[in-house]
Design brief:
Layout: E1 7-9, H1 12-18, H2 21-33, E2 36-37, H3 38-45, H4 49-61, E3 65-67, E4 78-81, E5 85-87, H5 97-124, H6 130-135, H7 147-170
Length: 193
């Protein structure tokens, strides 16, 4: 990955294409583990190569993945994620019921994925080195914020994470490994007065 993150704020068409169980997982796999062929991705997800190729082409049509021009041999196509960060706002799709439904599905699918990652870590934590067990601290905070304050807090956290990403990617420690850090503020229901 270069020094600059590649961001995409999803369009209606992109979110409708991405809101598919295999397609969203394909993009995630390419981001996490780098470029791959449809054959390797089919092995990862226990699908057939033809279906995987079809879904990669659908993602390429909306600019979510692209062929890696520096990889592949002969007719072999190697795919990579076109972006490092994906974002969307449900309200961006007002008037487009299909895109709003896709946004809702994608948000729920990502939330389930976060829960699965946490459960996987918890099941395997006993086998992790002590320093990793003590470093992976789960916390929750309850803050009283208005929408502007929440946006400012999230922006500040994004800036901190981006600084750490740049510094650690430039000179990774010998025992460094990929870490997924989720920041997902969830407003609680309004209190009754």
């Amino acid at each position: 990955m270069g020094d600059e993150l590649r961001h995409v704020n999803l369009t209606s068409r992109q979110i409708r294409v991405l809101a598919h169980p295999l397609r969203s997982r394909l993009v995630g796999e390419l981001r996490l583990n780098g470029p791959a062929t449809a054959t390797r991705l089919a092995e990862v997800f226990h699908t057939n190569t033809g279906a995987t190729s079809y879904h990669l082409r659908q993602l390429a049509d909306v600019g979510m993945v692209e062929e890696d021009p520096e990889a592949g041999r002969g007719r072999e196509r190697v795919w990579r994620a076109a972006h490092d960060v994906t974002s969307w706002q449900r309200d961006d799709f007002t008037g487009d019921e299909d895109a709003q439904t896709a946004a809702d599905w994608l948000t729920s699918a990502y939330a389930r994925h976060v829960a699965e990652r946490i459960e996987d870590w918890t099941r395997g934590v006993a086998g992790e080195p002590a320093e990793w067990r003590s470093a992976a601290i789960f916390s929750d905070y309850i803050l009283r914020l208005d929408p502007d304050q929440l946006l400012a807090l999230t922006k500040e956290l994004d800036d901190v994470v981006e600084r750490w990403r740049r510094e650690t990617n430039a000179d990774p420690a010998p025992d460094a490994r990929n870490v997924v850090l989720y920041v997902y503020p969830v407003p609680l229901p309004r209190e009754e007065k």
